[in-house]
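Researcher: Sequence of RING-type E3 ubiquitin transferase follows. Predict its structure.
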Amino acid sequence: MMLSQKSLFRDRVFVALPEEPRDGKSILSWVIDHVSDSAQIIIVHIVTSPNFESRQQILDCYLDQCSRKKVRAEKRVFLFTEIDEGLIHLINIYGVTELVIGAAADRHYRRKMKAPQSQTALSVMQKADSHCNMWFICKGKLVFFRKANYCLLTKSRSARPSCGVGNPKMDLQSLLQPNLEAKRLEYMYIKDMEIRKEIEAEISQQKEQTETLKEATLMLQNELDWYRYQWNKNANALQEANKQKHLLEHRISELDSVASYLGESMRASDSLVNSLKLEYSKVKRERDDAVKEARDMRMEKELTEPCAYGAMNSEFSLVELEQATQVFSSSLNIGQGGFGSVYKGFLRSTTVAIKILNTESLHAQSQFKQEVAILSRVRHPNLVTLIGASPEASALVYEFLPNGSLEDRLNCVNNTLPLSWQVRIQIIMEVCSALIFLHKHKPHPVVHGDLKPGNILLDANLVSKLSDFGISRLLLESSVTGSEAHFTTQPMGTPAYMDPEFFGTGELTPQSDTYSFGITILRLLTGRAPLRLTRVVQEALNDNDLHSVLDHSAGEWPLVQAEQLARIGLQCSELSRQKRPDLELNVWRVVQPMRKEAPSPLSQSFRSIFNESSRAVATPSYFLCPISQVVMRDPQVAADGFTYEADALRYWLDSGHDTSPVTNKTLSNRDTIPNHALRSAIQEYLRQNKLQELFSQG
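Model: Prediction complete. Tokens:
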């Protein structure tokens, strides 16, 4: 029969509590509920490392729990390598007869739990002496009770007296006391022997250390004697050094006087040098100003003197221009911009384009002179032909190109048909040819400076021609850098096509045109706006998806040529001009063969004019007369805006025709104007191809 709940523990009970307060408090609560008012709880905690400070706070929480229930309690902390071994030793040494210990962590509790689960609890239950009663608690519930066996000397089970908790006749403590005392003394003896051995070993070690110290002391004494000898030696050397020091100080004093004198001389020399530097800077500025002025005068002379090809063709009066444009009627206005306006006109029996520069613009006069100077000096089939000018009206008269600008054709203005991919490749080739011609021009290269689709015009045969040379420049070799460039503090042009380095530094070079040409190529490929166009094409190439960004209104692009052009466009539009390719060496060698690989619909106008070593040489279509289909010797611009061979056109008109041979529309008149620019280009082309003799014979 068990005792009542409040009298289970009447004297002293040991409680082994874990480090986790949640599990320990449930065990301690069970013990508090089963102790009598006179009983005392001994809280035992085993640690395996000498970190007592943090454990003391945990045990203080347990003491507070007992204090709140008004139960006497004290705490004891012991250091052992293993927790189960520590509890077993405590049972043996202190003669513990009542021990409460956790069966398992509270989270492992199960209703069917009938025995301890933790390894520590199992080890204590199996190895501890049998004189100790043990209660195994989990989550505040008694899981298992191991009853002590006090009658160890009795052999017969029937002769064993009842020694349970409920037998008050037998003094259990008095029976166990001798045995416990013997065990405690035996344990203390063993510990004393171990301590004695440790002390003897330590004494032996100290003797060895003493001998070692004696030897070290002797060595130190010898070293001290040696250092004392060295000190005396160094003291003598120091005394000698002091004597030398005094001598050197005296010498230094003398040198200081010399240095002072030399310093005054140096200051006088520095003053003279600074004066000479200022004089040199002044002279250099004057020289630079003179060089700049000379260059400006040279440029002015280059712009004003008659060109190598003859003076400007014609000079028109303001009255003639007003008559040609019906007093600049808005119905004849075909272009508008910051530079001024462009009108279609009928001048001296010829359809022309008349550009009226904005006289309010600060750059109007310089642009007028610049364009006249450039177009008077250069002749190329892919450059717009300057027919004449009117200084009185600040106007320029050009050949009329009926198909407008490339920008308008890309945007299909007035519902015009999209340009085919063959025509676009032809335009790229023609623009490249014109740029190479300008950049290699002698004696001074020419930079267009504002290349864009809006400044590329198309004639009736969709042949492209560069126009708007208002901000172009003849390049002079720089005396500073040795390279051909133009410097300005006010860069002009169209931002989306402008060379970033020109915009940042004001240095205009042929590579500036290369950048604009690259953006133009990408526009012809994609038909898209120029902003961020390079990034779009680069990403498409990286993803192997160029087809998705091509302008399919141009037809089915051949992907090989399209990819070649896309890579050329990206290379030309590199931010750094050093990374851009050379148009003649790198670009022309790629785009020129494309004309043969992908002939345009206009290729029928091309023909071979001679054989040399079994090799045919193709003649540009704009060198051939539309009537006779032979190379023109005397090209003349008719009233329909097309150029013909003079004899062929005269024969056409004398035969009774009053319509255009190309458009079949009625000609407004029979007058013609010589096309000097085309004539010069044909002669240069024939000379370069060694065809002059063949041409003369024809």
